[in-house]
Each structure stands twice: as structure tokens, then as C-alpha cells.
Design brief:
Layout: H1 4-27, E1 49-57, E2 60-73, E3 76-89, E4 95-109, E5 114-127, E6 135-150, E7 153-166, E8 169-187, E9 190-203, E10 206-220, E11 225-243, H2 246-252, E12 256-278, E13 281-298, E14 311-328, E15 332-350, H3 357-368, E16 372-386, E17 391-405, E18 415-429, E19 434-449, E20 459-473, E21 477-492, E22 504-520, E23 523-540, E24 545-565, E25 568-585, E26 588-609, E27 612-625, E28 628-642
Antiparallel strand pairs: 1-2, 1-28, 2-3, 3-4, 4-5, 5-6, 6-7, 7-8, 8-9, 9-10, 10-11, 11-12, 12-13, 13-14, 14-15, 15-16, 16-17, 17-18, 18-19, 19-20, 20-21, 21-22, 22-23, 23-24, 24-25, 25-26, 26-27, 27-28
């Protein structure tokens, strides 16, 4: 349960951020002479804002505050950024999680080519749950000079100091790196853009790094034809502490082990755009190749352990091809898109000196069972045709084929999957105020496992939906209403051989209404609600006979009265949700459970000034189950948004 002490702490955190917000509001001032800061810092022309939210839903309390302020004075600019989040879950095992990030920096422009700045960052993670890393803290200070050789060429090295704490262990070290960018225009429609980002964090015995290189060449062959070629390389490493096992502790005299998670990827992209390659028709082509390697490296390995943790690697090679044709005229629009993807993923284990070869071979075999090859092909067709100024019909088709192969004989996940979706929508404007629509949608999904060990899961899923409704938009009355019926049938191929898999059906009817009526000049009457009836049952597809097994009646009603006064809107209402479940005995429905949640609702929206907005949503639930009161639940959603 939420103790008085924790409740006071939670309230103190919230009040602190509210007071801090108003303090910042009083000292903040806008300056139109903003200019961009260094790319490793926050842009000074970013939107200044403060947002704090308090949310209470069931047994979960959440507090979230985000703040950003930037400004410039002559050749000097600065920024302050803060994000704070706190989550409290009141249950048998109460948990509290806090996350905090603070950043401050400034930039001084000596002249048009030379500038310098610094940034201070601090982040904290605290989680009362016993998970891998439930406590961490990181602080850093960096100095960033920047030299601009030309308007589109710059270099910005940086260096500083970093302090890092994980699971009670403090590490300190230097932080250095740099960024650079070049953009050149060689004329004749050719443009070259390149960028470099390097970051090294030597907090020994751990290391974190980042390397990001990219180059892009854009060539405009003519007024209608253009091509963009991009090549990029990305590399990252993150080191984490975790508690060492007893054998590793004795062998290496350490308390914690270190695991490095590394990723390298190389990517090639090419995009071709051909406008008007046929009358009223555009062509877009795109291709990409991705090579990625993800691997884990453990620093201390004990060869004497029978449960040796071998490091693992994942190699991925992925090919993407896309083509798109778009035809457009005044009353007709057609888009045809096809896509093809192949991905080859291989898993392996790495041995080390002194490791037992039998254990290594066993682990490597287990890893290789995860190897897979995926091929996906899809076709999408979208069309929109205006039959007249009042009539419109749209058609969408989607077909997707997935093939998933696993080379290992011990892996039975090999499967083929076909998915087809067809949707037709007709819309008619009956008069200037009312628009009518009707929609038909059908889906077929066929799943086939190749191996006999999994073939009992083979099934065909068919879904049919019919929906009709309308939208009325008058001067005082606005309303949206819809009616939908749907049928979902899932048929297993081998249900006669396996009694655990039975074909089933799910049918549903839904009626939805959302209406707003301007009762007086400053008073609105609002209503939102829906009725939903659902039926589940056993299905015999060949005979198309159904045996209902469960029935659900679900309803939601929310009538509201909204009062407008100057820059404020006050809403009161009543919320009711009910769910009845029925079973069947001798084809007769028998009430199984009856859940009702009802209570008052209030909302407040208020613009204190043009840059400050308050939002409040609160509702109280009286919950009954089978006609017996079981609980009372207050809920709250409060937000303060300040644009500085």
C-alpha cells in the first residue's frame, strides 16, 4: 500500500516542479536574434516549453515533467533542458521508478567562423524492483569548439570528463570525440553531403563509443529525374556491469563482471524519382542493402564453470527493393506499390582459451538453431475515384507473402504465410450538412507450418466487416454515427487429429455515436457511447454450423455538459461502462458475470495566458461485480503546458 511517507515524497516532487516551472516563467525572456548552436548541443532556435503531467490510473501514479529553454544575447546563447519521470505502482509488491535528465550548455561566437561552447549533462535512474540495472547515474562535462570553413563545411571536436555509476560502482574517465559535415554543390544538379560523428567514453575499466559515418550524393539529371545514393556506417559499444558468479569471483577476485554489447552495420541506399515518366504518372524506385553484426563480449570468463556463458554473435544481411507507380488526374488517383525483402540471419557462439570444447560445441549448436532466412513479397493498390462532385469510391488492396526458413533440423518454425486484405468504401454527400458512407472489408490469412511437428497450428482466418454511417456537421449540431457487423472465422486444417485445436468463430455487432450540440452560446451538450454485442462459438466450416459458447454485452455511455467562459472550458458528466458475459446451457444464455463501472466525470481546460495551458481530467469509479460493490477508484490526469 501507499504509505504516508511515500505519498508525501510524491507530493513534494510534484510541488517542487510546479514551483520551479513558475520561477522559470518569471525570469525567461524571448529574443528574436536566435542562431543555431553546435550540432552536439541543443539548437538555440528550438521551441521553448515546460510541460508537467500528473496521472493516476487505477493503482499507478505517474509524474512527468519536460522543460526546455533556449535564448541568445548578441554573440552568446545558452540552453537548459530537463526531463523527469516518476512512476509509483501500488500493489502487493509496491514499486517506485524515477528517471531524471538535466542538461545545460552555452555557445559563444567569436566571429562568423569560430565559436565555442560547453555542455553539462546529468542523468539518474532509480528503480525499487530487483532487475538487472535498477540504479545508475551519469554526469559529464564537455567543451566544444567549432570551426566553419565555409557556410556548408564545419568541424567540431569536443573533450571533457565523464562520471558513471552502475549498481553501486563508480567509474570516471575522459570523454572525447568530434563531429563534422560537408555539403558541396558541384553544379548541374549534383550535390554531395557527408557527415562524421565520433564519441569515445573511457571510464575504465569500461568503454563506450559511437562512430557514425555517412555520405549522400544527389543528382538531378533533369527537371523530372533525380537520384539519391547514400552510404553509411554505424558502430557502437556499450559496457554494463552485472553480478559475477561465485567461480568468476574466486578466479578473478572481482565482484562484478562486465558485458560489452556491440553493433556494427553498413548500409547502402539508392532512390530514383522519375516524375511524368508517362502522362500524369510518376515512378519511384528504392533499393537498400544492410549488413549488420551484433555481438556480446564478456570480460571475465571462467573455464571451470559447468554453466559457461559463451559470447554470441548475430550476422544479418538484408535486401530491400521497392517500386511505386502513381497516376493522378482531376477525378482519379491510383497508386501501385510492390516491395520485396530478403533477410539472412545467422547466430553463432564464440569460444575462448581454456573453454571446454564439448560445452562450446553444444552452445554453438543451440545458437545455430536460431539461423533463419526470411523472404517477404507484398503488393499494395490504392485508388480513389470521384464519380461526381458528391460521390466518391475508394478501393484498397493488400497482398503479402511471407516465407520463413530455418536450416536446422531441430527448428520447426519453417512456415509460409499469405495475407490478403480488400477494402471498398463509398461516400456520398447528401446535402451540405450530411455525408453518408458505407464500407466493406474482407481479410484472408493462411498460415502453413512446413514441419509435421507444428502443422497442427495450420489454419485459415477469414474476416468480413460491413460498416455504414454518416457525419452531420451543422451550425449547432455535429454528430458521427456508425453501425458495424463483423464475422471472424478461424479454421484449423487438422482439428480432427488434434483435439487441442478447434475451429472457432467470433461475430460482433457495434453501434457508435458521438454527438455535440450547441445548446446555448456558451453551453454544449455532448454524448459519446457505444453498444457492442459479441458471440464466440465452435465452428464446423465444411457444414458452416455454429455452436455458441460465450456471449458478451458491452456498453459505454458518457453524457457531458460543457461550459465555456472566456479562455476556460469546464465539463461535467457521468461515465458508465458495463460488461455482461453469458455462457450457454442447452442453447440458452445464462448470465456468468456482470461488471459495472460508473461515476462522475469532470474536465477543465484553461489558458491562463496565451502561453500557459492547464488541463484536468478526473473521474471516480464505483465498481460493482455481480451486483456487489467491490471497489471505488479515483482517477486523475492533470497537465500544465507552458510555451516560454
Amino acid at each position: 500500500m501507499l504509505t504516508a511517507k511515500n505519498a508525501r515524497l510524491f507530493k513534494m516532487k510534484y510541488l517542487f516542479f510546479i514551483l520551479f516551472s513558475w520561477g522559470v516563467q518569471q525570469i525567461a525572456a524571448q529574443n528574436e536574434g536566435n542562431r543555431d548552436s553546435l550540432s552536439v548541443l541543443v539548437k538555440v532556435d528550438s521551441l521553448n516549453f515546460l510541460e508537467t503531467k500528473l496521472n493516476k490510473l487505477l493503482s499507478t501514479y505517474q509524474l512527468q515533467t519536460n522543460f526546455l529553454y533556449t535564448n541568445s544575447f548578441s554573440d552568446f546563447s545558452f540552453f537548459v533542458k530537463e526531463n523527469y519521470g516518476s512512476t509509483l505502482i501500488r500493489s502487493a509488491d509496491k514499486s517506485i521508478k524515477d528517471e531524471h535528465f538535466f542538461s545545460f550548455g552555452s555557445v559563444y561566437h567569436l566571429n562568423e567562423n569560430i565559436s565555442g561552447g560547453f555542455a553539462v549533462n546529468h542523468s539518474i535512474l532509480s528503480d525499487s524492483r530487483k532487475i538487472g540495472i535498477n540504479s545508475a547515474e551519469q554526469s559529464s562535462f564537455v567543451f566544444v569548439p567549432r570551426y566553419t570553413f565555409a557556410p556548408e563545411i564545419f568541424i567540431a571536436p569536443f573533450a571533457g570528463y565523464s562520471s558513471n555509476r552502475q549498481i553501486g560502482v563508480h567509474d570516471d574517465g575522459i570523454l572525447y570525440g568530434g563531429e563534422g559535415g560537408v555539403k558541396t554543390n558541384a553544379g548541374d544538379g549534383f550535390e554531395l553531403v557527408s557527415s562524421v560523428k565520433i564519441k569515445e567514453e573511457a571510464i575504465l575499466p569500461r568503454k563506450n563509443n559511437l562512430r557514425d559515418f555517412g555520405i549522400s550524393a544527389a543528382n538531378k539529371f533533369s527537371e523530372y529525374i533525380g537520384n539519391i545514393l547514400t552510404v553509411s556506417y554505424f558502430e557502437t559499444r556499450k559496457d554494463f556491469y552485472y553480478e559475477a558468479d561465485s567461480l568468476t569471483r574466486r578466479e578473478y577476485s572481482v565482484v562484478n563482471n562486465i558485458q560489452s554489447r556491440k553493433e556494427n552495420n553498413f548500409r547502402f541506399d539508392d532512390s530514383l524519382k522519375y516524375f511524368q515518366f508517362l502522362p500524369n504518372t510518376d515512378l519511384n524506385l528504392h533499393s537498400s542493402v544492410l549488413w549488420r553484426k551484433i555481438f556480446r563480449d564478456t570480460k571475465y570468463k571462467s573455464a571451470s564453470s559447468l554453466q559457461t556463458v559463451f559470447d554470441t554473435e548475430i550476422h544479418e544481411l538484408k535486401l530491400d527493393l521497392e517500386g511505386e507507380v502513381e497516376y493522378h488526374k482531376k477525378d482519379f488517383h491510383l497508386l501501385i506499390k510492390s516491395a520485396f525483402t530478403e533477410r539472412d540471419e545467422k547466430h553463432s557462439a564464440n569460444t575462448f582459451e581454456g573453454a571446454n570444447p564439448f560445452f562450446f560445441e553444444q552452445r554453438n549448436t543451440l545458437e545455430s538453431q536460431k539461423n533463419n532466412f526470411t523472404r517477404r513479397t507484398s503488393v499494395t493498390i490504392l485508388s480513389n475515384y470521384y464519380l461526381s462532385t458528391k460521390d466518391n469510391i475508394s478501393l484498397s488492396l493488400f497482398h503479402n507473402k511471407l516465407t520463413y526458413d530455418t536450416p536446422s533440423r531441430e527448428n520447426y518454425d519453417d512456415r509460409d504465410e499469405l495475407l490478403s486484405i480488400v477494402k471498398i468504401r463509398y461516400t456520398r454527400l447528401l446535402n451540405p450538412y450530411f455525408e453518408f458512407f458505407t464500407t466493406t472489408e474482407g481479410t484472408i490469412n493462411n498460415l502453413v507450418y512446413i514441419s509435421s511437428q507444428r502443422s497442427s497450428n495450420n489454419n485459415v482466418n477469414r474476416v468480413l466487416k460491413l460498416k455504414s454511417g454518416g457525419t452531420f456537421s451543422g451550425q449547432r449540431l455535429k454528430s458521427y454515427n456508425s453501425f458495424e457487423v463483423s464475422a471472424n472465422y478461424t479454421v484449423y486444417d487438422y482439428e480432427d487429429l488434434n483435439p487441442n485445436y478447434k475451429s472457432y468463430s467470433f461475430r460482433q455487432f457495434e453501434m457508435l455515436d458521438s454527438t455535440s450540440f450547441r445548446f446555448l452560446r456558451n453551453i454544449d451538450l455532448k454524448f459519446k457511447g457505444y453498444l457492442r454485442h459479441s458471440e464466440q462459438g465452435e465452428l464446423k466450416w465444411k457444414e458452416f454450423s455454429l455452436k455458441p459458447t460465450r456471449f458478451l454485452e458491452e456498453s459505454f455511455f458518457l453524457p457531458q455538459l460543457a461550459y465555456f467562459f472566456m479562455d476556460a472550458q469546464f465539463v461535467i458528466g457521468y461515465r458508465q461502462f458495463s460488461l455482461k458475459t453469458f455462457t450457454y446451457e442447452k442453447n440458452e444464455k445464462v448470465l456468468d458475470s456482470y461488471y459495472v463501472s460508473r461515476g462522475p466525470v469532470t474536465e477543465l481546460y484553461y489558458s491562463v495566458i496565451s502561453k500557459v495551458r492547464l488541463q484536468l481530467k478526473a473521474w471516480y469509479e464505483f465498481v460493482t461485480l455481480n451486483q456487489k460493490r467491490v471497489s471505488e477508484i479515483p482517477n486523475l490526469d492533470f497537465a500544465v503546458i507552458l510555451n516560454i
